[in-house]
Amino acid sequence: TIGFTYLEIKNYEASRNPTKTILDDWAARNSESSVGELVSILEEVERKDIVEDLQTLIDEDVRKYLETQKKKAEPPVQVPEVDSCVPRTPERSGITVDDIPGGIPEMFDAFICYCQSDFAFVLEMIRELEQTEYNLKLCVFDRNVLPGSCVWTITSELIEKRCKRMVVVISDEYLDSDACDFQTKF
């Protein structure tokens, strides 16, 4: 019901976190993916036990989401002066999903440069390079990087200090993009 073949599912078993990997791929393939859709699929395949187990986690996530939305609606705190000094918060610590604040930064075998229109190819490349005997750890911006900082600052930090190599997925769209210009010159 979620559209994966038997071989794809067997390949997911080899990943570090099969459930996360399959959910990430499902979300990338399906523009209609949502928690509600996942619950519907689980109910359709008669896995109400999983739905019951997840219900408290879903309720907690909804509560946190509503709190975040409420905070966003509040007006921002205004500071009496504006300056351009060194940032008061460590902007480049904790830039990837698996970074541990104050710990050793997450390292990668390669940084993948691509544009959104090539994302399907990038997903296939991820399957071939991470979930096979190659067992590489790739840095894919849309998957591994936390939002919140300047894209160019994060990209330069990852390419320069956290990735051993850079893999460029060349396409006409990529060659016309700002990302291509920055990443390849950097």
UniProtKB/TrEMBL annotation:
Tell me what organism the protein belongs to: Gambusia affinis (Western mosquitofish)
Please identify the protein, giving its name as recorded: Myeloid differentiation factor 88
**Which residues are in the Death domain?**
1-58
Highest taxon listed in the record's lineage: Eukaryota
Query: Which keywords has UniProt assigned to this entry?
Result: Cytoplasm, Inflammatory response
Main location (coarse class):
cytoplasm
Which InterPro entries does the UniProt record give?
DEATH-like_dom_sf, Death_dom, Myelin_different_resp_MyD88, TIR_dom, Toll_tir_struct_dom_sf
Locations listed in the record: Cytoplasm
One GO term of the biological process aspect: MyD88-dependent toll-like receptor signaling pathway
> SUPFAM superfamilies recorded for this chain?
DEATH domain, Toll/Interleukin receptor TIR domain
What would be one Pfam family of this protein?
Death
Gene designation per UniProt: MyD88
GO CC list: cytoplasm; plasma membrane
Start and end of every TIR domain? 106-186
One of the entry's Gene Ontology molecular-function terms is: Toll-like receptor binding
